[in-house]
Automatic annotation (TrEMBL):
Domain TPM: 20-142
Organism: Bradyrhizobium iriomotense
Matches recorded under InterPro entries: TPM_dom (IPR007621)
Domain of life where this protein originates: Bacteria
Protein's name in the database: Membrane protein
Listed PANTHER family: BLL7265 PROTEIN, UPF0603 PROTEIN YGCG
């Protein structure tokens, strides 16, 4: 566990997510998710966490492990076609993780998700958070549309509203 990481998480903490992801930005992200879900029968969630705290921080929990916890907690795995996808941003680390349910993950694979994450992180390093998130949602949606095209009306199984933790 590095002192730099601990300091970054303690200093930036949760206020940073609220500064970067204002209500207006969150609304645009929500609208991007709504638009994307008209192109496929999958489900997309976006979660931004400002920083880790408590046990997670002092255990040096990696962003991937935290994203798996969030995926489970939000029950993103609980979709009819096993095609829920979480885009998780740990802002203090500027680390993006995509966790996909088994129905879509088997089709896209780790390398496909990793490319989307790295593209988003490049935008974040340049300070383009909103652009990076929306671009990531669009990239995830292209994968979902290719493997889970819309087939008639389908229910919105998960909320489209982004989560700020």
């Amino acid at each position: 566990m590095g002192i730099r990481r601990i300091t970054r998480h303690l200093v930036q903490h949760h206020w940073r997510a609220k500064v970067v992801f204002t209500p207006r930005v969150l609304d645009r992200v929500e609208q991007a998710i709504k638009r994307s879900e008209t192109m496929h029968s999958g489900q997309v969630r976006f979660v931004v966490e400002g920083a880790l705290d408590g046990a997670a921080l002092f255990r040096n929990q990696p962003a991937r492990e935290r994203a798996l916890d969030v995926f489970s907690h939000l029950r993103i795995w609980d979709t009819a076609h096993n095609n829920g996808v979480l885009i998780y941003l740990l802002l203090a680390d500027r680390d993006v993780e995509i966790v996909a349910d088994r129905g879509i993950d088997a089709k896209v694979g780790a390398a496909g998700w990793e490319k989307i994450c790295r593209d988003m992180e490049a935008d974040f390093r340049a300070g383009r958070f909103e652009h990076g998130v929306i671009k990531g949602i669009e990239a995830v949606s292209r994968e979902l549309a290719r493997h889970f095209p819309p087939r008639g009306p389908h229910p919105n199984e998960l909320p489209d509203k982004p989560v700020v933790m």
